[in-house]
Each structure stands twice: as C-alpha cells, then as structure tokens.
Amino acid sequence: MWSWSFTWSTLPYILDAMKMTILATIVGFAVALVGGMILAMGRRSKNRVISLIATAVIEFVRSTPLLVQLYFLFYGLPAIGISFSPFTAGVVGLGIHYSAYLAEVYRSGIDAVPHGQWEAAKALNFSKGKMWWRIILPQAIRPVVPVLGNYLIVMFKETPVLSAITLVEMLMAAKMIGAESFRYLEAFTLVGVLFLILSYASSLLIRKLELKWNRT
Amino acid sequence: MHFASKESPVVRYRKVSKSFGDLTILKEIDLDIAPGEKIAVIGPSGSGKTTLARLLMTLEEPSSGTIEVDGEHLWHKNVNGNLVRADEKHLLSIRGKIGMVFQHFNLFPHMSILRNVTEAPIHVLGLDKEEAVERAITMLKKVGLANKLDHYPAQLSGGQKQRVAIARALVMRPKVMLFDEVTSALDPELVGEVLEVIREIADEGEMAMLLITHEMDFARDVADRIIFTDGGKIVEQGTPEQIFYKPESSRLQTFLSRFRAG
C-alpha cells in the first residue's frame, strides 16, 4: 500500500537526482543546439566532402538507437583508450543524437528565409559570416523556436535512458531506493509526477517565449 | 552609338554573356557607364535587362566576358597575366561600389527601420554607431521617413518600404546604384512617391544609376541615355529624344507602340 511517510522520506534523494536530470538536459541540449547548427551548415556547404560527411553523420545518428550510441560511448570507446564519466558520455550522447534532429529543424528554418534576404545582404556587401549571423539566422531560428522547445522536452523525457550508463538521474535514484527498501511504487510515482510537472512547466515557458518573440 | 566621355567609365561590360542551361539571357553585351551617368534600361520582359544588373551586383555570375568596376575586374582576378575567377574576398573588395534596390524591397523584417539602414554601415563599413545613425537619419529624411525610425517593415506601406530600401542602399554611398523595376510591385497610387525620391537622387548627380524600368515617362525625364534590350542584346541606345521620338529599329518601334497602346 501507498505510504506517505515513505514518500516524503525518499523525496530528498529523488530531488537530488532531479538536479542531475536537469543538468544533463541543459548541457545535452546546449551540445545539440551547437552541434545541430554545425551539421546544418555542413550539409549546406559547397564543399562536397564536408556536405557528404554532415549528411552521413545525420543519417547515421538518426538511424541508430540512442541507447546503442550511449553504450558505444560509455562501454565501447574505453576499449580504444577513450573513457568518459557517465555524465560526459551521457550529455555527449544525448547532444549528438539530438543534434541530428535539430540540424533538420534548422534546415527547415533556413530554407524558409526568402531568397531576397540573401540577395539584399549580398548587395549591402555583408561578409558570409555576418550575413548568416545578422540577417539569415535570426530569421531562420525564430519560427522554429517552438519546434526546438519541443525537442528540449522530448530530450528531457528521454534522460532516464542515461541510467543505462550508470548516471544517477531520477529513474536510477528511484530504482536504487526500490532495491534497498523493496518499495517501488512511491519512488516511481514521484519520478513520474516530477517529470510531468517539469515538462508541463517548460512547455508553458516555451509558449510564453514564443508569444513574446512573435510580438516583435 | 557611343557616348564619348572624358572620364573613364565606372563600369565596363565587355562581351558579357549569360545563359542558364540552353537558355541564353544575354549575348555578348558591351556597355560603359560613365561616372554619374543615369541610364534607363527598357525592353520586353525576358529581354535580359534585370540580368544585366544582377551580374553587376554579383547576384549572378556571367557565363563569359568581363565586367570592370572602376578599372578593376569584378568577376576575375589578374594572376600572372591570366584572368582567373575571383574569390569571395575579391568580390567583397569591389562589391561595395555597387548598390541595388530590388523589386520586392527585401527589407530585413526582424529589424527596425533605423536598424535596416544602420546595420550595413556599422557591420560592413565599420562606422561607429553614432556616425551610422546620423548618416541613416539623413538618408531617411531624404526619403521622407525620418518619423518611422522605430517602426518595423511590416508596419509600412509598399511605397514606404521601397523608400527605406533606397535609403538603405544610399547610405553605403555606392558609385553605381541599380534600380531593378523598383515600382513594379507597388500599388499604382504608391508609384509616384518612389519615383519622386529617385528623381531627387538623380538630380544630385554624383552617383551613376542604372534604372531598369517600365515607367517610360520617368525614364525619359531622368535618364541621360536609354538602352533598349531585346533578345539578350542591346538593340538600340541613345538620348531619350532619339529613343522615344526617333526610334530606328523596328523592334523598338513595335515595343514603344505597344506601350503607347497601353
């Protein structure tokens, strides 16, 4: 049966693990935002080699499961002398995985910028870098912010997969509590409720951001 | 017909051709633009007149031939006596002498009117912000929009947008300005305000202008020389009087009569 006193006693441990979940999400998403941009730009590159490599990375990452990628990073790479902490392997894995998806999101945003914007930037003699930074990307990213936000939430909800590489995030903490006390109900319920609260709060935040950006 | 000028031309097209696949848009065009000269380019659509400007703005690359700006090759670089294709760095060093106003304005929608006009002076010319703002406001006054500094392009009418676009190009102080059918996308009642602004700029005189236009009266009033293009070639050119009142080629006569018939 449900025990409230047990629930409250486990809460501090789970909240502590929640910090790890949030940190892994933020760092992983930051990696994905940057990596996705690099892949999106690489794919557009006039240099065939760069564009082929970027395309291959995107296709490869999208066609293999995240769990396999994480196992490869955490359990596979040490065999060739590269080893990461669970956290580093986790955020690198999440980051690379989602960068492949974000690259496509960026691409759709970039493709939606009217051709005339490139021409106007060129006619004003902007260098390539400044044209991208000042003219194209601000227009490309704004409309895809909601999509990026959705990916952030999806990624957040996928952090329990990091328990497979021994990172103590919320799910792992709940499992450990269960293993010690033989009570799984309260801990897993708490994890579920916390995910719900955080996901819902982030989606509200994203919607607010979207409204604010659309106003200007 | 040639227009002798004491000064060397600011732009020189030599045997410039452009084709897209099998479709030839321009055929071996020779054209000199003198400093400060106002040239109007008229001709049926598809005659290559817009491409003429786009090649100079480096929006399209010529299939063959050379273009010189201020005595320097635009699309080529001289390496040990051979002309080789120019790189982006070379294009950047020359392109600043050319400015362009587009049919569809192409203002930056995410920037205020003031920032539309200051962005390139600050980040391309390297002016400090105060100077850029001062320059921008002078230009926006000239086009009658100094009261809209904080507005965004979406809040302006087509005619106002086009006037901002003119200010944005002028503020860079190009030697040659290209106007590519700048009134074609406007509602008829807004055409006048834009033409009026261009007329004033033309009267100031220093800058050469290439006006691609369907506005015949405007072309006649503003231009020193009219060029008539058809089928990718310059078929006839001359003063407005010659072109409009004594057209020689039958193609120009047909073109003008269609226009007069409305």
Describe, in plain words, how this protein is organized in 3D:
The complex is a heterodimer of chains A (216) and B (262). Chain A is 81% helix and 0% strand. Chain A has 216 residues and is mostly helical. In chain A, helix 1 packs antiparallel against helix 8 (170-181), helix 1 crosses helix 9 and helix 7 packs antiparallel against helix 9 (185-215). The longest helix of chain A is centred in the N-terminal third of the chain and has 41 residues, at 4-44. The mean pLDDT of chain A is 93. With 262 residues, chain B is α/β, with parallel strands linked by helices. Chain B has a six-stranded mixed sheet with strand order 8-9-10-3-11-12, with helices on both faces. The mean pLDDT of chain B is 93. Helices cover 37% and strands 26% of the residues of chain B. Chain B is globular, with a radius of gyration of 19 Å. In chain B, helix 3 packs parallel to helix 5 (158-170). Chain B has a domain at 108-173: ABC transporter ATPase  like domain (ABC transporter ATPase like fold, Up-down Bundle), CATH 1.20.1580. The A-B interface holds A 114, 116-117, 119-120, 122-128, 130, 134-135, 138-139, 142, 216 and B 57-59, 88, 92, 95-96, 98-100, 102, 104-110, 119-120, 123-124, 152, 165, 168-169, 172.
How would you describe this structure in keywords?
heterodimer; A: 216 residues; mainly alpha; MetI-like fold; 9 helices; 81% helix; 0% strand; B: 262 residues; ABC transporter ATPase like fold; six-stranded mixed beta sheet; 12 strands; 37% helix; 26% strand
